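Give me structure tokens for this 223-residue protein.
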Amino acid sequence: MIDFAKARTIMVDTQIRTESVTDHDIIAAMSEIPREMFLAPALRPFAYIDDDILVKDAEGGNPARYLIRPTPLARMLQAAEIGQSDFALIVGSPTGYAAAVLARLAGSVVALESDEALAASASEALTEQGIDNVAVVTGPLEAGYPSEAPYDVILLGGAVEEIPQPLFQQLKEGGRLVGVLGYGRAAPAMVFTHTDDDFGGRSVFDVHLPPLPGFQRPRSFVF
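Here you go.
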């Protein structure tokens, strides 16, 4: 039988602390939240591996969905500089785990998921863990969730080819949008800050993440 508590400690010590993650709240959240409980039973033995975990195959032209590995999640959360009173939106929440970690850092969280079945299982997992400051909602990821905007923090739960303007417009003044821009093996994780109607961006590290559905640029045909 797997000792998940021990596996969780090893994950934090070898995947989080060693990658310049120093935020005590992030370390505490990842040390305590049972990542395995956000996966189907057959996938739980793999919960703490240093890799993205497939939770749904690609279908209908949409990419496969993954629970992203812990290290880039922790580093993106740290880059977002989340405060305890912040209102946050996570775009792409196929398991609920990232939303659970975010909920330990922010005051309240909206978790947007485009796949209704994944959203239902994420909501169930959050409820079972007693996490009551996350609202799981469904809709197209690229549209964000404007009915609850504006947000202090928007976190993209996977890589995107481009960030639609409506997402930027859902940030509060001083709000931060954090996500990986591009599908390469070393794409930049960016932090965009809303300041005086501008959205200045800076790269904080390079990483590869699985793509989110809905963020591909339209392809043009050359005749």
